[in-house]
């Protein structure tokens, strides 16, 4: 049977009134400061995540809304700051007022089977994201608003969609998954404390006393003295109302094709993330048709967890990353072989040291927590190992779990299985319509096999 397309599927969601879910037991009422990495301007926004779950015969008779709501209340006993509200102190310092007011929760029902959505709808960006994650009016602020918004939408087949919106100042992807895994443990029947105890200790990523900038931070340099709080792509002279989102799948075949554009020593010494990031940055810059002497940037979100950098304790769920930037003139990036971009990506990633992280925190305090540079910048965040695709509320792993789409100039790499069952990475991008068309053509030339191996020329025939 053919799967309905988004244009022919009659899809509707019936929502109940939003409610507040509070911790299942009394929790401390206290003020807890965020770290100086957490409360920078560039993290003061909401992040939507979505997970699709098929029905499971072993869970017949169990209501995912009830199960998850009760598990959420138990989880908030241990992660009680999420039930509070943010307040701002001197020098724009953010703090959580642990009031126990709770998180927003919406119960909903869809009129179709989850299988009817089809592969193209599940792949980000989901065209029904507004129906599946209703943005309650007045809830989207950073200060004084719920820190989480959750909607659980049941489907007539017994499957459901779990969608959640996070105030990014509270956690990064790894910390957020830690929280969601705890919800999953309680949903599956645990009555004990979480298997991984949450650790606050945000002071570990605070600025030094006195703060002093010791490294070069290209990701902030043009905004050091500005108070701008608007994230504007500013990618070209097009009207930004013309922005579109599309996502691109990269399986083994596509990655293999991109590697053929590299010399042998870079093929074997470069990770998939590095190769893919270099390719996307170069194709995107070519598509933008910038002045050739303009400086363009690529910022790689680089996580400090698991590295011998800051020795963060297991269970830390705050933001623990920086985004060091690579710089190039547009002309050099567009005209040089792919290896040029790849070397810049490697150099940017390699900047993460303890001193670099400390210097970022110091800069943010000294300069009033500025926004990272947005002009001619492209930010990439690899969430393929964060664990969104492993969250289990009792119905098994999701058929898709990850970010709901690109956010302005930020692309997220997400694990995904193609319609043919092939494992790979899906990357959503946000660009003006005409730029997106040029980007697709440029990318097509990089990944469409057979690609001639540029560094393995065949012997000439005489």
UniProtKB/TrEMBL annotation:
Alphabetical list of Gene3D superfamilies matching this protein: Chloramphenicol acetyltransferase-like domain
Cell wall biogenesis/degradation keyword on record: no
Record-linked InterPro entries: CAT-like_dom_sf, Plant_acyltransferase
Stored Pfam families: Transferase
Domain of life assignment: Eukaryota
Alphabetically ordered keywords of this record: Transferase
MF-aspect GO terms: transferase activity
Name the UniProt record assigns to this protein: Methanol O-anthraniloyltransferase
Highest classification ranks of the organism: Eukaryota, Viridiplantae, Streptophyta, Embryophyta, Tracheophyta
